[in-house]
Amino acid sequence: MPPHPLRPAAAPRLALVGTGPRGTGLLERIAANAPELLHGSPLDLHLVDPYPPGGGRIWRREQSPLLWMNSHAEDVTMYTDESVACAGPVRPGPSLAEWAALVRDGGPGAETIRLDPGTAADVRALHPRDFAGRRLQNAYLSWVYERAVAALPPGVAVHRHRRRAVRLDRAPDGRQRLWLDGATAPLLADVVVLCLGHLDAEPDPAQQALARFAAAHDLTYLPPQFTADSDLRALRPGEPVLVRGFGLAFTDLMVLLTEGRGGRFTPDGPGRLAYRPSGREPVLYVGSRRGVPYRAKIGYPWDGGPLTPPRFLGPAQAEQLRRLPRDPDLHRDLLPLVAKDLGYAHYHRLFTAHPERTRTPWHAFAETYAASPPGSAELDALVAASVPDPADRFDLAALDRPLALRTFPDPATLQEAVRTHVEADIARRQDPRHSPDFAVFLALLSLYGQLGSAGGPAWHGFFSYLASGPPAPRLRQLMALSRAGIVHFLGADPVFTTDREDGVFRAHAPSVPGHVVRARALVEARVPEPTVERSRDPLLRSLAAKATGRGLLAVDPADGRVRPGLYALGPFTDAGGTGAAFARPGTNAVAFRQNDATARAVLALMACGAGPDPTLSPFPGAPPRAPDRAPRGVLKRRTG
What we know:
Low-confidence stretches: 1-8, 611-640
Number of strands: 19
Radius of gyration: 26 Å
Number of helices: 17
Shape: globular
Distance between the termini: 35 Å
């Protein structure tokens, strides 16, 4: 395509904002697809991020070595495999565990990998089913980034900008103007892709009110934030701290306030730990809607088949949920179909791997199960007649809300009940006799791959509770801290309020009627919800006009397009399943599919001379520019 008459001929410019795990994954797909789609054409690729590439901010090396990933090393990959349904070429690569083995054993290319002594020691000690430290994951992500850059074709020139992008607008000729912090002139780009990852957010009105109360009464209030970034010095030794949230952010908080302050865990019998306090720990009173921590990670390998697509919550139902003008209601719209899919996976595994615990042939059970309405008496009767042991039956309500409708006479009884629940969960999730639990986990992955964020925040929380919980060793540490009196459980559905008369925070839960805990500190142990309007990232906040009613950036679900010349990937968009940048191998990960589609859309534009939006060109008679869509056929999906 001929250049604009008043603009010198130049390679098209693509700016990628964010080179953390999501940006690195997109870069890998750009490198994989570029030979086919660029046909040797030049491209200027500008990479914008103030943080080191690969790990970005969240997975940066400079954080406590005590913090772990919550996935086994063998279950973490940045690379496509044959399960990924994408149009671009599959370029397999090592998982975290395989990468560590390559480094340890001196495999091909290992001589180019430089690690500091501490990380090298972590690599030597890593087992495939270990939970790697986050600093080790940073080394893996950095290597993936360097490998992706090295794989780019010769015509692609890479320019790194170690600055924060703060604003995006249009140049007079329609190109994107990307303003960088501290720069005197904008970076001009034909196309910009935002891969901003997880971002901080301004407190919502309720959180602002709590912060004002804390300031007025000399209290400590920590709003939702990434725990590794929190300043925890105000949480004083021996003083009570109210904690709202029992997920992974709480796990990090627990570690940093105990081991991070000099405490030690020591063996105390088989599968049991004792805690030796340093005397510098605060006393944590933790509560959440469920009143219990997320379910433990499963501790044995899967020996069944690959991930299968949902049977009852299929693409048509998922599309209907996406088209709702509101967030789907978890209990009314989602859980009946989710429960039927999860139950099917549970019973298929039970009948095929543990047939001695069933009374009916699988084919007969499956036929009646499929024909029975979700949650019906017919379905209950089928299960009761076919599965004699109640412990082998799938009960989603009991799994989801183990403390529902339960009350306890005093806090001590509640503590013992929660410890019994957690210890039973740890034991069950390490026992392959309960492998239907693993089948349910895989079915959840499949459902999340289809629904993604289309199910709304409640669906994401439900998924995380069942499928993205902490490693079992972390829960054993929690049990030791509970027995040591460092952690206390508030129960389910706690209410956190302010006491203006005494000038403190209060918490009480219906689990122990009449029991109230007062404290001078309240911590929101949860990450900020994705939001455009309240984002602390000025570039994203400037795009608030493009936000949906849920406060997310509206994008084309096919390729992440926001508007001509602008694309976005990540948890701040309304495209499904964008939160996780890396994935378990063999799961047809949503992020990998999205990365590939966006890379191909952008590369197709670059190849056909992408430039300003012709409707915005101020030059009369200028030749028309390529449309902001790839040529027909370029984005054809590979479905097998």
